[in-house]
Amino acid sequence: MIMEEARNKIVEYGRKMSSDGLTPGTAGNISIFDPQTGYMAISPSGIAYDKTKKEDVVILDLHGNVIDGDKKPSSEHGLHAAFYRTDPEARAVVHTHSMYCTILSCMGEPLRAVHYAIAEAQCSEIPLVEYHTFGTPELADAAARALRKKGRGLILQNHGMCAYGPSIESAYGLALTMEWCAQVQWHCMAAGKMNILTDEQMQVAMEHYKTYGQVRADGTRPQGYNG
User: Fold this and answer.
1) Is 135 helix (H, G, I), strand (E, B) or coil?
2) 138 a catalytic residue
3) Using one digit for the tens of pLDDT, what is the confidence trace for 59-86?
4) What is the pTM (predicted TM-score) of this model?
């Protein structure tokens, strides 16, 4: 089976995404990219995460051609491909409709540096991508333009959020951190006051993140608080 390990990971993290409350129903999607083949594995369209099997995961190239699988791929496969084409280090993308990130997206707000944990995204502000209909090339193009400017996360206006990284573990950990930061920001906005950290303060925080946590056996580090 092509990309069997990636398929298993997508099933595993899809169930985590649902149980952790990061997305309702069948909303959201996950992909993993293999740079050796140029293929990505992506969750299928419209199948509940607790019922998704590895055979349901679809393998595509970055042009949207199905390489393996008999299910319809996620409607956002073009959005995921945009991440892999834009950043050669991207290996996994997590797209969710998590509550607080989605609230900010519907308010037209980026995710700001109200807490230093946003440094996990390697930026001091996670940008807001202008609204385009889901599953369209226009949305993928807008996301790619935003990715060239800042960090490893995006807020999609009136839609949801995206996080990516060098592994599914790091991308998923960032998605959790983004949702927590969005909740903090929303409560600050509701209370009527936000103390936003400066770019200089965030640069220091980002440097500290490079040595945060334990070094794993493979030489990598957990990504922030949720890695």
Assistant:
1) coil
2) no
3) 999 999 999 999 999 999 999 999 999 9
4) 0.93
